[in-house]
Amino acid sequence: MSPTVEKLYLALRERDVTSLYALLHPDFEGHVAPGMPCGVGGAHHGRDAMILGVWGEVAGHFDTAPYPETSQQTTDGTIVVTGHYRGTARATGRDYAAEFTHLWRLSNDRVSWLHQYTDTAKWHEALATAP
């Protein structure tokens, strides 16, 4: 895995906003899985949109972090990382684990692009109250 992407996962786990700003390119573009809770699915342009509007919003509802397990770099430079998000929904106290695949691109040693795929059903199950 690229050292930059490794640092990004560490910053996400540690909720280190200063490092996230330093690691993301100013023109960052993120694509979050449709159906994600908290209304964060879809395209997000710029560091603030991703850090505050996605990761910050999710952190308000989940105590969660991504844990990468495999990494490959494609011939065009895209970094493909698979792993699991693990955490707890704050409102219900329910633990969850949701698989993910992240596609990352770098520009000038900063993360410039992300496309996230995840099992959104696991996120929603953790938020659901018992019948």
TrEMBL record:
Pfam families: SnoaL_2. InterPro entries: NTF2-like_dom_sf (IPR032710), SnoaL-like (IPR037401). Keywords: Isomerase. SUPFAM superfamilies: NTF2-like. It comes from the Bacteria. GO terms for molecular function: isomerase activity. Residues 5-111 form the SnoaL-like domain. Gene3D superfamilies: 3.10.450.50. PANTHER family: BLR2505 PROTEIN (PTHR41252). This is Ketosteroid isomerase-like protein. The lineage of its organism: Bacteria, Bacillati, Actinomycetota, Actinomycetes, Streptosporangiales.
